């Protein structure tokens, strides 16, 4: 890539290629500069440092995940929306395991808008279960923990037993849906 073509978005694009091909631990300013065909100091015109680049990468990944979630629930409600959301989340993490692991889990001011949109999508998907306010937030946390936990364990190859992972994921969805149907009874 020519120096003139660099921009913050272009630097993030290159960083995502590094992450996709080599994993998040391989993301360095030197690696990005090498792929861009520039000296590392040239990147400082577009990103302050590696920490900022990691936040920008995470923001892009969160945006992609938010789009997946939005598309999954669009036109669906209740159990169907939740199944589509959980399947979409798993599929994204499976297609992009290194990107998914580059996602910064703690809230950041730079990604707050996208994070709020993602939470809003999940809250909307939970409305059919009669969950509102703090009950909806607790359910979102549980849902996120279930989706994230399965995705991380699957990407790490942690499920070594012979049973089919699709069946395990279907059972997880069933357990979450069943739990949400009775959440108001607790």
TrEMBL record:
Top-rank lineage group of the source organism: Bacteria
Signal sequence extent: none
Organism listed in the record: Microbispora hainanensis
Transmembrane feature ranges: none
Protein name: WHG domain-containing protein
Sorted UniProt keywords: DNA-binding, Transcription, Transcription regulation
Annotated DNA-binding residue span(s): 28-47
Lineage of the species this protein comes from: Bacteria, Bacillati, Actinomycetota, Actinomycetes, Streptosporangiales
InterPro entries per UniProt: Homeodomain-like_sf (IPR009057), HTH-type_TetR-like_transc_reg (IPR050109), HTH_TetR (IPR001647), MT1864/Rv1816-like_C (IPR025996), Tet_transcr_reg_TetR-rel_C_sf (IPR036271)
A Pfam family that the UniProt record links to this protein: TetR_N
Record-linked PROSITE patterns: HTH_TETR_2 (PS50977)
Domain called HTH tetR-type: residue spans: 5-65
């Amino acid at each position: 890539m020519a120096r003139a073509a660099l921009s913050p978005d272009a630097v993030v694009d290159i960083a995502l290629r590094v992450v996709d091909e080599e994993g998040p631990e391989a993301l360095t300013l030197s690696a990005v500069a090498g792929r861009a065909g520039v000296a590392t100091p040239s990147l400082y015109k577009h990103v302050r440092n590696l920490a900022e680049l990691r936040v920008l990468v995470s923001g892009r990944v969160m945006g992609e995940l938010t789009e997946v979630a939005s598309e999954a629930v669009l036109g669906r409600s209740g159990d169907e929306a939740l199944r589509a959301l959980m399947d979409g989340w798993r599929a994204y993490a499976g297609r992009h395991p290194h990107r998914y692991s580059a996602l910064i889990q703690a809230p950041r001011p730079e990604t707050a808008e996208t994070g709020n949109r993602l939470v809003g999508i999940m809250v909307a998907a939970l409305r059919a279960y009669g969950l509102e306010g703090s009950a909806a937030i607790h359910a979102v946390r549980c849902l996120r923990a279930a989706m994230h936990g399965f995705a991380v364990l699957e990407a790490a190859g942690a499920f070594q037993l012979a049973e089919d992972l699709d069946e395990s994921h279907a059972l997880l969805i069933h357990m979450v849906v069943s739990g949400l149907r009775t959440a108001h009874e607790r």
